[in-house]
Design goal:
single chain; alpha/beta; Collagenase (Catalytic Domain); Cytidine Deaminase, domain 2; 2 domains; 5-stranded mixed β-sheet; 10 helices; 21% strand; binds tetrahydrodeoxyuridine
Length: 296
């Protein structure tokens, strides 16, 4: 999911909004590249937009304007044709619509609910994104379903710290790896790889391969994900999903060694083609490994 940002000098306090957007898409099970336009603004502007677009004369926390017209009772996962109509060739993605978030409202609500502004911004984005994917909360059962999806996506992104119950399934981890693959920078090999690394406490870090005109400086998707996690203080991992097209993308030797440093027993899922998946473990891929245990 690509976020087209527009911010009136608001600070997103390190909120993992890109990851939240990706997790919403993965939780919904949409595989087409999608994009969304997000405006982070003040109460005055959201008030004006609310008045002009909805005839509601007050500020609010979040507004969403879907570009896809879903059939009643359906959501994005079963509306591929309609999504494709919103294909933007410049973005290389289907534009789901516009989201406007009031930063001062997010701050106020965070205080009210006793959680961080970071969490509130993530929640508002997830809520609005599910609206853009066809969800609503008019009826009680619709509302329940929407809440469940929001919780699921936020859990996957590690925004709700629970007991890990919301961690993604293997299928969802693979879906996240495939979405991460869409971010690959691989103009030289044209071989896109994505990875989704599941932490021991149920959070996900994604990565893609990042090539360089000086070829040897290329970084693999798996290592991008591991380095993102470790650089944020996370060193315990349960599984990694690796996605590519063509053959099953088993990790290269260098990535096996890097995984072995932090998670010698890690489960490895590889996914390719439409939805194919194989599972293995690092001890199987790197027998008789050399690692921290071998040093005095
Ligand atoms: N690549 C990965 O991202 N992960 C692997 O485990 C194998 C290779 C990338 C690096 C390079 O951008 C491209 O695939 C071709 O080698």
């Amino acid at each position: 999911m690509k976020i087209e940002w527009e911010s009136r000098n608001m600070v997103t306090v390190d909120a993992p909004l890109e990851l939240v957007a990706m997790c919403c898409q993965a939780a919904e099970g949409v595989t087409l590249p999608c994009a969304v336009h997000v405006l982070l603004t003040d109460d005055e502007e959201i008030h004006r937009i609310n008045r002009e677009m909805r005839d509601v004369d007050r500020a609010t926390d979040v507004l969403s304007f879907p570009s896809v017209n879903y059939r009643p009772g359906t959501t994005a996962r079963s509306s591929e044709k309609r999504l494709r109509r919103e294909w933007d060739p410049e973005l290389g993605a289907c534009m789901l619509g516009d989201i406007i978030i009031s930063y001062p409202h997010a701050v106020m609500q965070a205080e009210e609910y006793g959680h961080s502004v970071r969490r509130e911004l993530c929640y508002l984005l997830a809520h609005a994104l599910f609206h853009l994917m066809g969800y609503d909360h008019m009826e009680e059962d619709e509302k329940k379903e929407m809440r469940k999806m929001e919780e699921k996506a936020l859990g996957m992104a590690g925004v709700t710290r629970d007991d890990g119950a919301l961690a993604p399934s293997d299928g969802e981890l693979c879906a996240l790896a495939r979405l991460a693959m869409q971010k690959s920078y691989s103009p030289y090999s044209k071989y896109a790889v994505g990875a989704a690394l599941l932490t021991a406490d149920g959070r996900v870090y994604t990565g893609c391969n990042i090539e360089n005109a000086s070829f040897g400086l290329t970084n693999c998707a798996e290592r991008t994900a591991v380095f993102k996690a470790v650089s944020e203080g996370v060193q315990e991992f349960a599984a990694i999903a690796i996605a590519s097209n063509g053959a099953p993308p088993y990790p290269c030797g260098a990535c096996r060694q890097v995984l072995n440093e932090f998670a010698p027993g890690i489960r490895i899922l590889v996914t390719w083609g439409e939805n194919q998946m194989e599972e293995t473990t690092l001890p199987q891929l790197l027998p008789h490994s050399f690692g921290p245990k071998d040093l005095p």
